[in-house]
């Protein structure tokens, strides 16, 4: 079976990463690629790292451009996917890398994104308990956000096992500049970023906050409240999330490690590191992997989980392809590397 994939919003960072992965996929053929302001340009004029696509040109993002595609990946700005998807054939499967269909609560959408809530699709994080089977049976999948992926992978197993309290979760996470997209912004200029760390959207206002609380609440079986502080790091890609939660009574470091080991023993893309080894963003560059480590801070009575991912791969394009593999009953690892690029 030949599966044809089209990419909407292919000129952005996540879109470009999708092109890179799909160009080497053994079971999926790359079809139409579209863009907005870059329509009419060659792919390599924007993504010079993709010479095998030098003969391809970005088309305008219109519904008819996706005729004939079996699956459409929408890598569009938040709030733009819903209108396009409404005009696509109902027989086409869609993986949306934006936020349009992630949230279950219309109130949360209004509060953090504004505008009309487009609805809720299957949440595409296969490593969450029970989600792999749901994704496999779905026609439309909402790809998680990058921060939300790292935090869910770090804390969901502990909440599900009742090892930490759901009402006192604190996350501080640093992201590379590609997480802010490709549009020119003064605060993302090299002169502003290099040699400096900074916080942004502090105080519970970051748009991934309700998504993280939603996935963690699903794991805990009760509402989870969290404080989230995002940081901008002087690197192009990667996320390092430090997630802490208050330990339940009598929980030990061994209990935490056993829960993480049980959750990820058979997961191809989540690696619980050996004791004493801590995640580094550099080790996940270019790979659809999450590196995880856990500790018990008995002095403060808190569990500490550190997670590293590549925000453009496991946090976006790689996870989208992982979801598509499940939707088409392909090998889940098809076209996806577990090996990072170093140095």
Word description of this protein:
Helix 1 crosses helix 10 and helix 6 runs parallel beside helix 8. This protein has a 7-stranded parallel β-sheet. Strand 13 and strand 14 form a beta hairpin. The chain has 2 domains: 156 residues, Rossmann fold, CATH 3.40.50.720; 165 residues, Dihydrodipicolinate Reductase, domain 2. The mean pLDDT is 95. It has 10 helices and 14 strands. It has 343 residues and is α/β, with parallel strands linked by helices. It is globular, with a radius of gyration of 19 Å.
Summarize the entry for a quick read.
The chain is of the alpha/beta class and 343 residues long. It contains 10 helices and 14 strands.
CATH class of the largest domain, please?
A: Alpha Beta
**Order of strands in the sheet with the most strands?**
3-2-1-4-5-7-6
Which consecutive residue ranges, at least 5 long each, have pLDDT under 50? Answer: none
Query: Percent range for helical residues?
Result: 25-40%
The Cα radius of gyration reads 19 Å
* Tally of DSSP helical segments: 10
| Averaged pLDDT | 95
Describe the global form. Answer: globular
CATH architecture heading of the largest domain: 2-Layer Sandwich
Reading the helices and strands in chain order gives EHEHEEHEHEHEHEHEHEEHEEEH
Our count of domains comes out at 2
Number of strand segments: 14
The CATH homologous superfamily of the largest domain is termed Dihydrodipicolinate Reductase, domain 2
């Amino acid at each position: 079976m030949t599966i044809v994939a089209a990419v909407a919003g292919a000129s952005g960072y996540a879109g470009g990463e999708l092109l890179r992965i799909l160009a080497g996929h053994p079971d999926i053929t790359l079809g139409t690629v579209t863009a907005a302001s870059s329509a009419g340009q060659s792919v390599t004029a924007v993504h010079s790292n993709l010479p095998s696509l030098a003969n391809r040109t970005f088309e305008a993002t219109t519904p008819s451009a996706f005729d004939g595609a079996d699956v459409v990946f929408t890598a569009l700005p938040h709030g733009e996917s819903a209108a396009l998807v409404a005009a696509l054939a109902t027989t086409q499967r869609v993986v949306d890398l934006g936020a349009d269909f992630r949230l279950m609560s219309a109130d949360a959408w209004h509060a953090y994104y504004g505008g009309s809530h487009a609805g809720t699709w299957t949440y595409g994080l296969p490593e969450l308990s029970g989600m792999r089977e749901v994704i496999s049976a779905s026609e439309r999948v909402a790809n998680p956000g990058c921060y939300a992926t790292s935090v869910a992978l770090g804390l969901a197993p502990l909440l599900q096992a009742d090892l930490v309290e759901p009402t006192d979760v604190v996350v501080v996470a640093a992201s590379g500049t590609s997480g802010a997209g490709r549009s020119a912004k003064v605060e993302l200029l090299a002169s502003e970023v290099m040699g400096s760390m900074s916080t942004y959207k502090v105080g519970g206002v970051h748009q991934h906050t309700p998504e993280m609380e939603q996935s963690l609440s699903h794991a805990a079986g009760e509402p989870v409240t969290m404080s989230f502080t995002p940081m901008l790091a002087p690197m192009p890609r990667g996320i390092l999330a430090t997630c802490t939660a208050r330990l339940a009574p009598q929980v030990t470091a061994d209990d935490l490690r056993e829960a993480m080991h049980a959750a990820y023993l058979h997961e191809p893309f989540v690696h619980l590191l050996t004791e004493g080894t801590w995640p580094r963003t550099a080790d996940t560059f270019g790979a659809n992997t999450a590196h995880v480590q856990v500790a018990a801070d008995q002095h403060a009575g808190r569990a500490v989980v550190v997670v590293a991912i590549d925000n453009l791969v496991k946090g976006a394009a790689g996870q989208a392809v992982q979801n598509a593999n499940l939707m088409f009953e392909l090998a889940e690892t098809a076209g996806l590397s577990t090996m990072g690029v170093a140095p």
